[in-house]
C-alpha cells in the first residue's frame, strides 16, 4: 500500500507539486479529466498510465476503509432496497429491474457483498443479481461485469449475510436524528 501511494505521488508531482495525491479533493474525479480530454482539452501529463495508478491506489484504499457500521450508514438504504426488490421477485413472474449508481456508491455495496477485489469499478460496470429455483430452493447469483462473484447460493444464506448491512427507512431516520 505504501509503495503504491509513493508511486502515485511521484507520478502526480509534476502536475500537482509536492502535495501529490493529497492535493486531490477526490481521486476518483481526476479520471474525468482524462476521460473527457477530447471535449475539454488534454492536460499535459494526464494519461492512461497516471489514471490507472490513481485508480489502483484508490481501489486499495477504498477496500480498507470500511467497517460494518460505516457500510450500514453509507449503503444501508441501497442494500435494503436491493434486498426488497429481490424478495419481491421471489414469488412473481420474471422481472428485469435496472438501477443505476455511481462507482463511489457501488464500491461499498461490493464490500458489503464481500466481493470487492480492491479494483475501482470501470466505467459502465454492471452488477447483476439473478434469482432462480434450483432443486426446489430459491437461489441467487451475483456477477460483476460478466464475472461470477457469488455463485448460486441459497436465498436465505445470502439474505442473512447481506441483510446485516441493510438499513430500513425508519432505522435510517433514527440514525440520522440521533446525537453522536
Report the major sheet. 3 strands, antiparallel
Morphology = globular
Domain count: the total is 2
Report the mean per-residue pLDDT as an integer.
80
- Helix-strand category: alpha+beta
Total number of helices? 8
Tell me the span between the first and last alpha carbons: 32 Å
- β-strand number: 3
Tell me the helix content: 40-55%
Secondary-structure element series:
HHHHHHEEEHH
Instruction: Point out poorly predicted stretches.
Output: none
> Which range does the strand content fall in?
5-15%
Radius of gyration: 19 Å
Strand order, largest beta sheet: 1-2-3
Structure description:
The chain is an alpha+beta fold. It has 2 domains: 2-64, no CATH class; 68-177, no CATH class. The chain is 54% helix and 13% strand. The protein contains 8 helices and 3 strands, in the order ααααααβββαα. The protein has helices at 2-16, 27-35, 37-40, 48-64, 68-90, 103-113, 155-163, 169-177, and strands at 127-134, 137-144, 147-154. The protein has a 3-stranded antiparallel sheet with strand order 1-2-3.
